[in-house]
Design a protein that fits this description.
Blueprint: E1 2-5, H1 13-23, E2 26-29, E3 47-50, H2 58-66, E4 71-74, H3 84-87, E5 92-94, H4 101-116, H5 119-127, E6 145-149, H6 153-164, E7 168-172, E8 183-184, H7 187-193, E9 196-199, H8 213-218, E10 223-227, H9 236-244, E11 248-253, H10 275-282, E12 286-288, H11 297-317
The chain binds 1,4-dihydronicotinamide adenine dinucleotide.
Length: 329
């Protein structure tokens, strides 16, 4: 079984190589992303292994199919970058539905604490022997209301963490779950009551620009917005305006609408063309990490294990475990 592995990073290889050897899977690691321009590289491979910013649109799917590729193994949970409907009947698509919800939920809390306790500022100050506390005043999380949108695997862990901090946890989900330690409310009420909003729902037609000019008007003044889910959940221009008008008190972003050409890469020697991102980065109350929330040892190991299991199951049974069925999406 030959697999073309796209968007390879140094931290991906060890666990995939080890498991590949064990299961007789030959990975060819490409640093480039899968796009209409690179899909030619897939000739002669049985499957492709892709990540969050590979582009698997209808054009790419048609060419994969022509090249004899039989399946797409996503090594992530979200699949908004794959045209699942178009793949139906041509290629099987499988994903890693869960690896470590703790990795993402803990990162969301790490960003929140960093932001509201100004740890990012304090770290730089003390490195420069500046021990002044002026401008570092934060606020207690205890007693504050956190609104969680999407209470699946990650959102429910985040709810538990917030409960541990003594916060009032309210939530909105299209499919509420009685096992989640949160009080479900309407999205409107969540917008109106939350001091902190954390997004943990998938990016779909319904959730795109959930945070928009209109919804920002409904938010509490000074609200902190956390997004570790997908960039498209937030209309970034509206976010920038919301921060400039002081309606939004702070933003913690692990994902960004236009991240695909920037995140995961070292751009430190480049002039950033994206003025919106540059503006956000310039703001003292915005913290950005580059889609890092998943990046723990436990999560990487689990991603490699499940992806390998998916591939092995396809080889043995002609069916991927964790197959994404477009009718069920
Ligand atoms: P999940 O599928 O367990 O939970 C998603 C929840 O969102 C479900 O409870 C679902 O009912 C709810 N939902 C669906 N449509 C909704 C809507 N219109 N409004 C409100 N809620 C809705 O997914 P999981 O594992 O918790 O992941 C959540 C998201 O986190 C993923 O979609 C992915 O985009 C993102 N993610 C980000 C990572 C990162 O490194 N930053 C890593 C892993 C996931």
């Amino acid at each position: 079984m030959r697999i073309a592995f796209f968007d390879t990073k140094i931290y991906d290889k060890p666990s995939f190589e080890e498991l590949g050897e064990k299961h007789n899977i030959k990975y060819k690691f490409f640093e480039t992303k899968l796009t209409p321009d690179t899909v030619d590289l897939t000739r002669g491979y049985d499957g492709v292994c892709v990540f969050v910013n590979d582009c698997v649109n209808a054009e790419v799917i048609d060419e994969l199919y022509q090249n004899g590729v039989k399946f797409i193994a996503l090594r992530c949970a979200g699949f908004n970058n794959v045209d699942i409907k178009h793949a139906n009947g041509k290629l099987q698509v499988c994903r890693v539905p869960a690896y470590s919800p703790y990795a993402v939920a803990e990162h969301a809390m790490a960003m929140l604490l960093t932001s509201i306790r100004r740890i990012h500022k304090a770290y730089i100050r003390t490195k420069d022997f500046n021990f002044s506390l002026n401008g570092l005043t934060g606020f207690d999380l205890h007693g504050k209301t956190v609104g969680i949108v999407g209470t699946g695997k990650i959102g429910s862990v985040f709810a538990d963490i917030c409960n541990g901090f003594g916060m009032k946890v309210i939530a909105y989900d299209k499919y509420p779950n009685s096992n989640v330690n949160a009080k479900y409310v309407s999205l409107e009420e969540l917008f109106e009551k939350s001091d902190i909003i954390s997004l943990h729902c998938p990016l779909t037609n319904e959730t795109e620009h959930l945070i928009s000019k209109q919804s920002i008007e409904k938010l509490k003044k000074g609200v902190v917005i956390i997004n570790t889910s997908r960039g498209g959940l937030i209309d970034t221009d509206a976010l920038v305006e919301g921060i400039k008008s002081r309606k939004i008190g702070a933003a913690c972003l692990d994902v960004y609408e236009e991240e695909s050409d920037l995140f995961f890469e070292d751009k430190s020697g480049h002039i950033i063309e994206d003025d919106t991102l540059a503006r956000l980065i310039s703001m003292p109350n915005v913290i950005i990490t580059s889609h890092q929330a998943f990046l723990t040892e436990e999560a990487l190991k689990s991603i490699a294990e499940t992806t390998t299991q998916n591939i092995v199951s396809f080889i043995e049974n002609g069916e991927c475990e964790n197959r994404i069925c477009y009718k069920c999406v």
